[in-house]
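User: I'm writing a short methods note and want a consistent example. For Glycerophosphodiester phosphodiesterase, I'll paste the sequence; you return only the structure tokens, no commentary, since I'll be parsing the reply automatically.
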Amino acid sequence: MHARAVAASTTALLGTAALLFPAAPARAAEGSTSPLVIAHRGASAYAPENTLAAVDRAAELGIRWVENDVQRTRDGELVVLHDDNLRRTTDVEEVFPGRSPWKVKDFTAAEIARLDAGSWFGPAYAGARVPTLEQFVHRLERHHQKLLLEIKNPELYPGIERQTLKVLSNEGWLDRSHLAGRLIVQSFSADSVRTVHELKPGVKTGLLGTPPVADLLDVAEFADQINPSHSSLSPAYVSSVRAFDGPHGSRLEVFAWTVDDARTARRIAGYGVDGIITNRPDVVRRAVGG
Ligand code: G3P
Ligand code: CA
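Assistant:
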């Protein structure tokens, strides 16, 4: 059976979930045929990654979509940080010299809140903090932005999918308007993405990586997007992905990462991707018009 036909049956079974979800792909919903431009960890070429300053910088550039990385502290708070440890992007080694290897999961939220997450990037950002997920979505809301949320290292944080959805729900990010085009949850872990889909079928989801084409029919039962590194992409792979329909009855989308120069952006846009994730969203937008 053709992939679309199979997925259509799945959609019928999902009922309410499909009703909640926008039928149009993101690009059409945005009224553009250019790929969406997503600020990777915020506008992270210009401000420290995954901080509120990086969100603000994206907003100043007029970028509506922001990607982030979510992990969990020792006392169960969700925070926005890429690495599984705090060394590269904070002054944790100075503040807590005896706490090697400085893993996020070994620090409380109060301890992490003391850290400087900006000085490593430049003196202008001294005092920037590691935001909680709540703080992050508040800032996005203030700017009327949209969130591509990555559940990072889910194997380290059992139950993080349910907890992430709870926080999003508490903050109003699972209401109809957010589900209809302001939120996508992604992960490198297929299990994590499947869990998000099962817990909250109305949430749009993405699987990071480049799964074999032979696996796409299965993946399309719980993921709306396949989001590969641009270096692993080919026009044929993008076409293959886009031949499948996802769990909400729309064709699978492709967001490619991380593209920071105009030439690569134009090439990848030419493959027909739906979004480009970039540390330099101004450069990519100029190149592809997203
Ligand atoms: O959103 C895609 C990209 O963020 C995945 O890689 O390592 O930057 O989280 P990474
Ligand atoms: Ca990420």
